[in-house]
Write a structure and sequence with these properties.
By secondary structure, the chain is of the alpha+beta class. The protein contains 17 helices and six strands. It has two domains: 199 residues, Alpha-Beta Complex (H-NOX domain); 111 residues, Arc Repressor Mutant, subunit A.
Length: 354
């Protein structure tokens, strides 16, 4: 695969969950979906887990090999990416004042999504164009991923405005399939193929459309949360980066320093010295990973404090509560209530994200 990729090395496992369920719903076995990915059902069931982008690409390749003959398969997969699957990024968009500001914010924090395309918004005369840059995407997966990412964008737009965006045109760089009825049904028009860009075009005036759940105060807070989450997901270089990736890949089984040194075929003393040379330490990396996962699990909901503490390898829930209070200045329970309150503010009109 080319090195000039436009996506982060690490990403949330939620996209892999959606793709796996998509494969199962189309008759594939779990083994066929996950072949060669080193993923398992336990990891996919973990709301806070992160995986390598390469693992998701391997999963997509499995789907393409088994289901690629089905018309519009990438579009159908992409429509499963509803706004509420994106966590704080989705709430940030939902609380934005206009479609334009939501699009701009979404593009600023594109690395928090599951897209493999780089994206940019262009405006010219009466038209607006969202360009999907496919650099680095493996050639055999480009058609599926272009359709998935395009449909995911349209699914997000519908969640924001509760209406279907009237498109002017959609173009894909790949060849035209033999059967186009599915494309017309899902997109509302027949796309063009063999184009120079993957592109979605619509009336420029729609960018100034106000959003029904706009809340500037909540939007500002959500954006600060996006900034913090993006910073925590940044990829460290060198040995520290390898260790951080290892800790993130199995959040329910965090190894101690001696175990990790053994995996790396070095002594604990050597590991400590090399991390010090990079200006960090094992405990600091462990705390960084635990805090990032704790905040995400608490914000998403669905797990008790005891379950979160266990997933983060705390022997006692009291130890987790003490650590979280040291990080954030409030208890996990208080933090979760804060998140629920803010999310309720976003959805004050009573409309659920779909």
């Amino acid at each position: 695969m080319p090195n000039a990729t436009l996506w982060p090395t690490r990403r949330s496992a939620i996209s892999a969950q959606l793709l796996t369920q998509f494969g199962l719903d189309h008759g594939l076995s779990l083994g066929a979906c996950l072949k060669g990915t080193e993923l398992n059902i336990g990891l996919l069931g973990d709301l806070g887990a992160e995986i390598d982008a390469e693992q998701e690409l391997r999963l997509i390749r499995n789907l393409v090999q088994h289901l690629g003959h089905l018309p519009g398969i990438g579009l159908k997969a992409g429509l499963r990416y509803h706004l509420n699957t994106y966590g704080i990024w989705g709430f940030a968009l939902l609380s934005s004042p206009t479609f334009r500001s939501a699009a701009q914010l979404g593009l600023r924090y594109l690395d928090l999504t599951y897209a493999f395309h780089g994206m940019r918004l262009e405006e010219a005369d009466e038209h607006a164009h969202l360009i999907l840059d496919e650099r680095g995407i493996p050639e055999d997966l480009r058609d599926f991923i272009a359709q998935r990412d395009a449909a995911g964008i349209l699914s997000i737009q519908r969640g924001l405005t509760a209406t279907r965006l009237p498109l002017l045109s959609v173009s894909f760089s790949g060849p035209a399939p033999s059967y186009l009825d599915t494309h017309h049904e899902l997109l509302g028009l027949t796309p063009t193929f063999n184009a120079s860009h993957n592109r979605i075009s619509f009336a420029r005036s729609l960018l100034d459309q106000p959003l029904p759940d706009a809340n500037p105060q909540v939007a500002q807070h959500c954006e600060s949360q996006c900034q913090a989450l993006l910073a925590k997901r940044r990829v460290r270089a060198g040995l520290a980066g390898r260790i951080r990736d290892r800790l993130l890949s199995h959040p329910g089984q965090l190894p101690d320093m001696q175990q990790l040194a053994g995996e790396l075929h070095m002594t604990s003393r050597t590991l400590r010295r090399r991390l010090e040379e990079e200006g960090t330490g094992f405990r600091q990396l462990q705390e960084e990973v635990r805090q990032a996962l704790a905040e995400e699990l608490l914000a998403i909901g669905g797990l008790t404090l005891e379950e979160i503490a266990e997933r983060l390898s705390y022997g006692e829930v009291s130890n987790f509560i003490h650590a979280f209070k040291r990080w954030k200045g409030l208890t996990p329970g208080q933090y979760r209530l804060q998140q629920v309150s803010e999310q309720a503010g976003v959805a004050s009109s009573g409309r659920q994200c779909r």
